[in-house]
Amino acid sequence: MDLLEYQGKQLFARHGIPVSPGRAARTVEEAVAAADEIGYPCVVKAQVQIGGRGKAGGIKLADDRAEAQEYATAILGMDIRGLTVNEVWIELASDIASEYYASIVFDRSAKAPLVMLSTKGGMDIEAVADEDPDAIARLHVDPLLGFQSFHGRRLAFEAGVDDDVVRSVGTMLAKLYDAFVAEEATLVEVNPLIVTPERVVRALDAKVTLDDNSLFRHPDNAELRDPSGEDEQEQMAHERGLTYVKLDGDIGILGNGAGLVMSTLDVVALAGGSPANFLDAGGGSKAEAITSAVEVILSNPKVKAVLFNIFGGITRCDEVAKGLIEAFEQIKPEVPFVVRLDGTNDIEGRRLLAEAALPNVFAESTMDGAARKVVELAAGS
Amino acid sequence: MSILVGNDTKLCVSGITGREGTFHALRNRDYGTQVVSGVTPGKGGQSVDGVPVFNTFHDAVKETGANTAMIFVPPVFAADSILEAEDAGIELIVAITEGIPAHDELRAYSVIKKNGRARLVGPNCPGILSPGKANVGIIPASFFKAGNVGLVSRSGTLTYQIGNELALSGFGNSTIVGIGGDPVPGTDFIDVIGLFEDDPDTELIVMCGEIGGDAEERAADFIASDVTKPVLAYIAGFTAPPGKTMGHAGAIVSGSKGTAVAKAEALEAKGVRVGRTPTEVAELAVTLLGAAA
């Protein structure tokens, strides 16, 4: 789960990481009141989970009340790369002497947290990584040892931070690591990490991704989920505990297991079709889950045909068949379905479907055959 | 021969008294796996259809000589159970549990690596099947028979799909290993491909990857330097949009690295043929080994 900038900063503040004072606001009135309270000049920042906010005009420096009002009016409701801005963060403007970059990520290759520090912050760090990889100091931390003071010093010296802030940058990295572990994050990123003319080190931005699998241990964090970035079907699927990703096409896809569903999308695309979604019904899905998944798929009006591709291991094909039959009774779909069932209890599943003789449901015995059939049906309707 | 599990496997199931744990433990036993014991804290002394249950892995190892563990407990308890099995001297730990917190996984992996005495396969994996010998996990064994193809995969159901395509072309398997799709898999493609290289019964290695991470790219380098047997690959996720998570915690595309195209190119650059569909993988297997039985 990705946090908004200000949520990340509030999380940072709880772990003693210095951030600028600020307030979140959802209306222009709230934003102006917040700016008055914080003082001028202040920065009005759009809160959306996407990069490039500054370039899109979503970050503005307000010198006075009139400007705060003008910018809050412009930014609230603004569309930034498909996301609507529902909230702004008003923050006291900072004087900046240097802009650094710091992050901690889960490095899957090394299977350890990777801490990175660079003095080339404030710009596109991916470009820095491409063009001048040595400008980023990197260090893996043994999770059983944790982040030690020497780690901070090594990174700070290696990155070449100004001598007088080596200690405070190292301390900030240690606190970021504390936050990374305590909040069970998979990413903590600060860009820029600034040094002020008074030589104070501060996090001017915050990007935090929390591990969804650990949210049960962090109920306060779990409440921070921002559904505004999800579309209607994705929200609906999320509420029902289904893994669903919306795509641009017109063929609804349901399968069991992420790998098989991804493979199904590929095979449909190779057959000339365009998938409308990724939907993993998961392992061991019962009939109700299948019925529920069909509702989610069909709530997307672009869907012209649906493909079920099931290879049951822990999932039982008879349960899938029962779920589809139930869905037909409840929803009475108007689009054709192509169903391919293999694996645990497949014979029983196919028998149930054959007996139900659902209108517009076509059984196919192979994945390739099912993909070709659904593409043909979607094109014909 | 086969790898990881076989006739010498003596399995202890953590979470054997749970609904899924009981079902799959007995299913594994019905297949012929020696299921010697189970562990459920507080239920020591009971039995599940004749399989003795112990309170701790230490008791189970002492009393029944278990050398392999299958972890079937809920995510919140899973890392602890893995660590307990390791502490008790279990050599192979197969973790089926899905949804283990990433930091728990990282800690368990780090301890196992540091101590260097056990191998962890998974978590979030379908397990390991050596057809005709032993099944540890949830792979539907009836679709597979013994043969000369070693199969290793990050995805459960995709493993079945590819395995089934190979079976329809007449191929059987030495061993099928599901390594799981989580960010910190205990065992990587490289580990399993190395084991298949040394296994006399394996003549062809099929690896089944997906978007995210760089395990397939690293496997490509390893295959070029260390593997003499032919290797075929399949990669899922060519149509996955960048930046979206497709269910597996591990399947996250970031930048160009980790895309299906990048992985397929890395493998093909090292001489590994990549099938574009599961069916094409089976067709390539036929061209490499000739029509099987």
Molecular structure report:
The complex is a heterodimer of chains A (381) and B (293). Chain A has 3 domains: 21-92, Dna Ligase, domain 1, CATH 3.30.1490.20; 98-222, D-amino Acid Aminotransferase, Chain A, domain 1, CATH 3.30.470; 230-380, Rossmann fold. Chain A contains 13 helices and 18 strands. Chain A has helices spanning 5-14, 28-38, 65-75, 125-131, 149-159, 166-182, 219-222, 232-239, 258-270, 287-298, 317-331, 346-356, 367-380, and strands at 22-25, 42-46, 59-62, 79-80, 83-84, 88-92, 98-107, 112-118, 136-140, 185-195, 201-203, 207-210, 243-246, 251-255, 277-280, 305-312, 337-343, 361-363. In chain A, strand 16 (305-312), helix 11 (317-331) and strand 17 (337-343) form a beta-alpha-beta unit. The mean pLDDT of chain A is 91. Chain B is built from 9 helices and 14 strands. In chain B, helix 7 runs parallel beside helix 8 (260-269). Chain B starts with 9 loop residues before the first strand and ends with a helix. At the A-B interface, helix 9 of A face helix 4 and helix 5 of B.
